[in-house]
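Supplementary Methods, section 5.1.

A reviewer requested that the exact input to the structure prediction be made available. We therefore reproduce it here, unchanged from the version used in the analyses.
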Amino acid sequence: MSTFWSIWISVIVLGTVFGCWWLLWATRKNQTTDTETDRTTGHSFDGIEEYDNPLPKWWYYLFVGTCVFSLGYLALYPGLGNFQGLLGWSQYNQWEEEVQVADARYGELYAQYGDIPVPELAQNEDAMQMGQRLFSNNCAVCHGSAARGAIGFPNLTDDAWLYGGEPEAILTTLHQGRQGNMPAKGLMPNMTPAQVDQVTNYVLSFSGRARSEEAAQAGKAVYDQGCAGCHGADAKGNQAIGAPDLTDDAWLYGSTYEWIEETVLYGRNNVMPAQSPRLSDDEIHILAAYVYSLSN
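The structure derived from this sequence is encoded token-by-token as follows.
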């Protein structure tokens, strides 16, 4: 936070607290008596008159105490711009302390599964219950609670793996993350609109859905020049670089003509974040076994 905004926030916060105190003091000062009277404010509504009685002392002192408490709180904890408070508390430190407590409490529980091979661990019911909770807390927001994915997020329950479904590949994905990049117009940036239509029809022809057989036939030459370098001459994909198989029915961004055309025209860029900064090696091992179990 910049110095200007720090000062601005501090002025507003302190101005509010002292403004409330001044309002209480000014109101109390203008009162002529501390006891209830029959004096009214001078106006009535529907025959009901409002008495002009002073604020009860206990109520007044309660408000004053609130102002004093506010100043004490602001002195001890963050609340005045960049000032961290005399106690040095922060939400980040609090979170780190809670994580350390959780690691100490559950670390041994996770560690007992750390040396078990992923395929074997996938058969352990207790470990899979832990894996399901880890998945729900860290993966379900993208892949869905049932791990069936969504547009742009892979389905983890089928056998269509961009980078491979072997335990080692899943562990690498979880530890290091993945960066997927489909360049606009593939490896042929000078692709014309007609060629985009042709290669789109060619890809659709793998599943017998080409809009034009003539365009599909012409699209093979475009595919060989602009797409085969990644997806392969047979369009079966390349797991080494995360290039998907174009001949199956697993489509990350939709399989209609319009979706494929958009992918060819504008490309795609997708990120699977690395989990290592947030999860321990043992937690990732259990999570990998759970993901492995979804398609095995």
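The mean pLDDT is 93. These observations are discussed further in the main text.
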